[in-house]
């Protein structure tokens, strides 16, 4: 085990910064334990360039972090960026009253940068064109069956499957995990060039997203979801998302909008459009429902 204490030079909302890294309530690679017990804090696992690792982060007067496994030092070195130290919001200007109000109330909401493309890409591909329930179920299944036990004191935490592990999965095992052919092919294609895709973090911005989109099956939505987490891309809006345009439209305009209208409304925030979206989502406003909830499908029954 290795440890580190870090005092952030800015307000820090630990839950808001790390929350987007959690993929559903049953995510076996992420856990939050409240209170003052021995396991208190935010736990996450990762495939790092040095190997698998587990990181625990707790907030007191300063941030206290502990890490286990071959990737421990790498994770501790990346702690400031993970908690938003690389996120520069100094040039951001609020153009809507709601955005200004949330920014005032939530000064600790920053954009995390994990520095890891693959760990963000795997669940993002699984979330393509399905409900969150379906995607999270598949991700959990893949972590439990093809990931590895996480280093450290929590035996039920899992490190997400590596690209090599993804390439070893048979058709039947994909079916058992509820992953259809389209998402399966995208993950296999990405796994074959995963080492090259990590360069997207160094490129950043649109160049990084363009590199990801070179992989068949990875489009603008998936690239944006990865960019938001891997390098804290402040301009990577998830166009094509089933919910985002509606939430942004109702929050900022009081009506339903499509992606084109959302893009037009957010244009004034470029090159920090995603930051504006994060403030809108942090407001917690819903949108009216005009029909029944979309039911998740179970591809294992097909």
Automatic annotation (TrEMBL):
The keyword DNA repair applies. Keywords: DNA damage, DNA repair. InterPro entries: Alkylbase_DNA_Glycosylase/TA, DNA_glycosylase. PANTHER family: DNA GLYCOSYLASE, DNA-3-METHYLADENINE GLYCOSYLASE. This is 3-methyladenine DNA glycosylase.
